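Reopening this ticket.

The earlier resolution said the output was attached, but the attachment link was broken on my side. Pasting everything inline this time so it's all in one place.
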Amino acid sequence: MHKVALNQAVIDEVLARRGRRHAFADLDPHRTALIVIDLQNAFMDAGVTPNPCQHAIDIVPNVNRIAATLRDANGVIVWVQNAATRQSQESWSVLNVRMFSPQMRDRREARLQPGTIGHSLWPSLDVQNGDMVVQKTRFSAFIPGASDLETRLRKRGVNTLIVTGTGTETCCESTARDAMMLNFAVIMVSDATASDTDERHNASLNAFYRNFGDVMSTEEVVGFIRSNVGGQARSKDG
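Inline output:
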């Protein structure tokens, strides 16, 4: 598990700007979605990738705990899968042709092609009937053309997102930032997101917290979901 370290200067700046530690403690669970990003075998299974992300494996119990709590509160659970296809390689040629070697591109496609073991969700995730499963073809699930996630969430009346998964500084942060730009209230969960190193993880959380949304622990998220069941914020954070 990552050693989380929010910069005190960032916390002080947020408090001065917002007047409270957590801007979205009053979330309405019924209008909240848990977004689980890319917790797939391609990034976690040593039989699929030579560099599995141990931190991603470590956060699975926290992700499942948030999912169970929000599901009980009639919120929305979304499992997002990164997908690499021939079409997405061509339409995202800046990444796949100019930033990747041919060997890297082909390895990525082989691991993330729909229908493969690598594309599949990590088996320990508590995926249940009624949850959404969404495919995305970019780092961000919200950039136009990447997925239909925004449309599906709008139809459900969702206005708040809890972002978890991997990697913190790539697909999680990209998705979270774009969601905020689309006027969703966004919470990144400090101990339910994962990167390769503490340094990358914390740099991402600090940057996001400063200008884009909220950062909470699993314990805090679960507490706010439970205290706000029914849409009434009965708990004030300090």
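Reporter confirms the inline version is readable. Strands lie at 32-37, 76-82, 132-136, 160-166, 185-194, 214-216. The first helix runs from residue 8 to 18.
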